[in-house]
Amino acid sequence: MNKNDFIKCVSELLRTNDVKKPVSIPKQVFHISDDEGNSKDFTIKKTDKAVLYTKDDVTTIVDACLYVIQESLKQGEPINFRGFGTLGLNYRKPRATKCVNTDEEVVIEGRYVPKFTFGNDLRMCAKIYELSLNDKLSEPEPVYDETDEGGIE
Asked: Around Cβ 58, how many Cβ atoms within 10 Å?
């Protein structure tokens, strides 16, 4: 699933669950004066309403989330989503290896690499998927009638 498919699925989910964003309408003040110089101010507050999230709204939200994740990782801060997992950086020590073509020993410098540790909810999703694959692949066992012994009577 790419980013556009993800955004489309999130938009459809929000629309299906009737999740709406609140839209606030500012107050309007009317100044009314008569011929005698008397004036009166009337404040009209319009009711707030809620509208559905659009695909552009969800795109903005997803982009903002990804930006915050990237900036946090640039600062070296791990990000923990309860049940989903933890994103962080892992330091890989320097090591020596051989070049395949020349059998020459090469030293690879130490570096930080991104690391994801999955949470319990993702582990359960993988287990459910695995069980569904096992159900699809396994052939059903033949059902025998207990009264039929297989002999001719």
From this structure: 19
User: CB under 8 Å to 1, separation ≥6 — which residues?
Assistant: 9
- pTM here is 0.60
| Strands 79-81 and 85-92, bridge-based pairing | antiparallel
pLDDT by residue (tens digit) across 56-102?
888 898 899 899 999 999 999 999 988 889 999 999 999 999 888 88
118: its two tokens: 């999955």
Side-chain half-sphere CA neighbours of 79 within 13 A: 16
Q: How far is CA 68 from the centre of its chain?
A: 14
Q: Which residues contact 81 (CB under 8 A, 6 or more apart)?
A: 119
Residues 36 and 24: beta-carbon distance below 8 Å: no
User: How far is it, in rounded angstroms, from Cα 45 to Cα 43?
Assistant: 6
The two tokens of residue 83 are 């049940």
Q: Comparing C-alpha atoms, which of 5, 1, 8 is closest to residue 58? A: 8
Q: Tell me the C-alpha distance between 71 and 64, whole Å.
A: 11
Q: How many C-beta atoms lie closer than 10 Å to residue 19's C-beta? A: 11
One-letter amino acid identity for 47? Answer: T
